[in-house]
Structure formats: C-alpha cells, structure tokens
Amino acid sequence: GDDLHRLLFEPNIRINDPIDNKVLADFLGELAEVRSSGQDLVMELNTIGGDPDISRRIAHEVRLFAAHSGRSAVCVGKTYVYSAGINILAAFRKSCRYLTEDTILLVHERQLENVSLSLSGPLASAIQIVQEELSLLETSRKLENEGFAELVEGSRLTVEELRKCIRANCYMTAQQFLDHGLVEKILR
C-alpha cells in the first residue's frame, strides 16, 4: 500500500555513508527540512558504521523529534546496518523499525583503537594517566549499555542475552533481528 511505498521509496532522510561529520551535517539539514515541512520522519539507513559518538548525536536528534514533534519517526534499514548504525536504529521505537529482507546487521561492543599507555615519571602522574584511561573505558561501557538497552526495549532479549548473541556471532540477518523482536517488520 501507500505506507509500504513511502517506507521503501520515499524517505525524507537518507544515511548511505559511513557515519562521520559530513553525514551529521547532511542529516541535520535534512531534519530541519522535515521539521519545517510538517512531515513524519522517514529514514533510510544503510551504513558500514563509523564514529559512535556522531551516531549518538544523530540518535539523540531522532529521539527529540519523536518526543517533541507530535509526528512519527520511522527507520528502514537497507542492505547493511553496521556498528554505529545500530545506535541510530536503536533510537527509533521498536514499532517504528523496519528492515528490508536483504539487510545484514553488525552489533558489537565498542572497539578500542590502538590504545597503549606509556608510563614514566612521577607515580602521581602515572596514576592520573591510568585513572583518566579507566574513566574513558567506564564511560564508553556505560554508553554501550544504554545503547544496547534501547535496542532491546520491547524485544524478547535482555541486554545480557544480546551480549551473548553478539559474542557468538555479531552479524545478524534481518530475519534473526525480527525473530529476536528487535524490529517491527521485514519489508518486501
């Protein structure tokens, strides 16, 4: 019907690139147009992932739109929704999340990028460096838990069950996401 056509072929926000500052700027511009037009937000999401903090910002804007616009916010994941893209998908209520049947999703824990500590000098300085790195790790884990909790809300999984699933295989098909109750429907 009309809704299926709109979801599959007429999104008013498209993310089809790695999540970076350019994608954020494009998204904010498209979102401003959606707000001023009085339309529902219909997002097409297809990404290999990217910067998790930028994806958190996009997700926050989606939640604000849904909470304050009085309009719907829906997302259709297409072909691949990897890594940071999961943060964006999770910002949509489960009943507003859709996937195309070919979609593969990559859900994993936050990754460290070549972090190494080199300690020398006074002990107080070394302790300060270690405490700062530990604080960064703890904050990252807290944000990860919040994102996972948002993703599993309304599903058949707990955060711990999701963690077990992604430890076994962090790539999931659209059908597996649907079977776990993480999306509303697969669109064909």
How would you describe this structure in keywords?
188 residues; alpha/beta; seven-stranded mixed β-sheet; 7 helices; globular
Question: What layout of secondary structure does this protein have?
Answer:
Blueprint: H1 2-9, E1 13-15, H2 21-37, E2 41-47, H3 52-68, E3 73-82, H4 84-90, E4 97-100, E5 104-106, H5 123-152, H6 159-168, E6 171-173, H7 174-179, E7 185-187
Parallel strand pairs: 1-2, 2-3, 3-4, 3-5, 4-7
Antiparallel strand pairs: 5-6
Number of strands: 7
Integer average pLDDT: 93
Spans of at least 5 consecutive residues with low confidence: none
Measured by DSSP, the beta-strand proportion falls in 15-25%
Q: Indicate the percent of residues in helices.
A: 40-55%
| Cα end-to-end separation | 12 Å
Helical region count? 7
| Helix-strand sequence | HEHEHEHEEHHEHE
Globally, the shape reads globular
The largest β sheet comes out as: 7 strands, mixed
Structural class: alpha/beta
Q: Cα-atom Rg, whole angstroms?
A: 18 Å
